[in-house]
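Exercise 7.
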Amino acid sequence: MDFLETVYNFTYRLSGDRDVAEILTEKVFLTQPANRRRDDIVLLKQAWEDFLRYYGRFDFDGENMVQQSLLRLSPEIRCAVILRDILGYSYSQIAFVLDESELTVGRLISLARRDIKKRGIKQNISS
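Solution. The predicted structure, written as tokens, is:
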């Protein structure tokens, strides 16, 4: 997956809205200097910060049960589980994005998985 797809997938899973994901993805790439090497974890951190900046303006409504379950999670928990279980990032990379410790990241991911399991979602979360 290239950087553009990664950032779009991340912002889509955060927002549950294709238009919002496109806007946030575009914002990330328009604000990056053209000559700077693009590190995906830095781009994801910027996408996360942009998402939080505009969070109150979004109306969250997922297209399927998995997305709906993700959208019921708090933003920080949602971010952690998306980065880990959907995009496959390490705890240390997720800690960088969230400005948290790896221990906190582990706790957030555990909370997300329990919540999703409690809701009885059988579908693979990476769908």
